[in-house]
Amino acid sequence: MDRYAVIGNPISHSKSPAIHAAFAAQTGQSLTYEALLGPLDAFAATVAQFRAAGGRGMNVTVPFKLEAFALARRHSPRAQAAGAVNTLVFDADGIFGDNTDGAGLVRDLTHNLDCPLAARRILLLGAGGAARGVLLPLLAARPARLTLANRTVARAEALVADFAQRAGDAPLDACGFADLAGRQFDVVINATAASLADEAPPLPPGLYAPGALAYDMMYGRGDTPFLAAARADGAARLTDGLGMLVEQAAESFLLWRGVRPDTTPVLADLRRQIE
Ligand code: ATR
């Protein structure tokens, strides 16, 4: 049977094995998908071992996405732009690296949440790996404007300058949180690590245009601090990142198996489990 795995550290709480098992059952694909704890000093060796044992591909999660990028011999354009890899494909040509995070986010927004991005004003909060990983797919969705805001302004500016070289005259700008005062957005996406510290990015009030959606890439029980703040600031719609998790998995599954699973029942099951 074809073998796949997710590698990370820690990994025991990963929902990926359950998600991929559900996709495999639904599409009639014969495969196994396991969770591998990668030793912090032996990522490449663990991948090599899995591949030698007949592994066909892997998902890669924290903290190995940059190492996975370095390991891959070939990259998709979206992995190239992200500078990080969350999906590895092992084939006769060696190791191919892709990044399905941004496509997963865009698909969750446009398909599951019925939130079109074309011609909308998007605010992306953060300038670390999570933000970088989704920038190109967000731009490809043709927003009216994509504004990147970060606590450390210089980091947002550096990221935007880098993308300006790749994406030419994309409607992209960078600023600090305080500079957002007086501006309004249709979609606000939290890609900062603030939720991990149980904090919300310090945003000025009045950011949400009528009907606007607030999206936290984190997920868990109840509102994150960012979503609670968005609710208080009048965001019309709030959502966590559970749909992105399932959609990035579906994109990986499609890449490996050539079939796109129906994510709706899988996401509904997962939602029932965490709530
Ligand atoms: P990741 O890969 O999760 O993006 P990272 O590369 O360490 O992790 O980036 C973390 C991001 O969260 C950064 O944008 C960081 O802001 P700085 O660049 O100013 O450090 C942001 N961040 C972390 N904690 C935050 C907080 N409490 N409030 C606002 N932003 C925060």
List the helices and strands and how they pair.
Elements: E1 2-8, H1 16-27, E2 31-37, H2 43-52, E3 55-60, H3 65-71, E4 74-75, H4 77-82, E5 87-91, E6 94-98, H5 101-112, E7 121-125, H6 129-140, E8 145-149, H7 153-167, E9 172-175, E10 185-190, E11 208-216, H8 225-232, E12 237-239, H9 242-257, H10 263-274
The structure holds 2'-monophosphoadenosine-5'-diphosphate.
Domain Quinate/shikimate 5-dehydrogenase/glutamyl-tRNA reductase: 117-195
Pathway: Metabolic intermediate biosynthesis; chorismate biosynthesis; chorismate from D-erythrose 4-phosphate and phosphoenolpyruvate: step 4/7
Domain Shikimate dehydrogenase substrate binding N-terminal: 6-88
Give a structural overview.
Residues 241-267 form the SDH C-terminal domain. Residues 6-88 form the Shikimate dehydrogenase substrate binding N-terminal domain. It is an enzyme of class 1 (oxidoreductase). It catalyses: shikimate + NADP(+) = 3-dehydroshikimate + NADPH + H(+). Shikimate binds at residues 14-16, 61, 86, 101, 219, 248. The chain is an alpha/beta fold. It has two domains: 2-99, Rossmann fold (3-Layer(aba) Sandwich); 102-242, Rossmann fold (3-Layer(aba) Sandwich). Helix content is 40%, strand content 23%. The chain is built from ten helices and twelve strands. It has helices spanning 16-27, 43-52, 65-71, 77-82, 101-112, 129-140, 153-167, 225-232, 242-257, 263-274, and strands at residues 2-8, 31-37, 55-60, 74-75, 87-91, 94-98, 121-125, 145-149, 172-175, 185-190, 208-216, 237-239. Strands 2-1-3-5-6-4 form a six-stranded mixed sheet, sandwiched between helices. The longest helix has 16 residues, at 242-257. Bound molecules: 2'-monophosphoadenosine-5'-diphosphate.
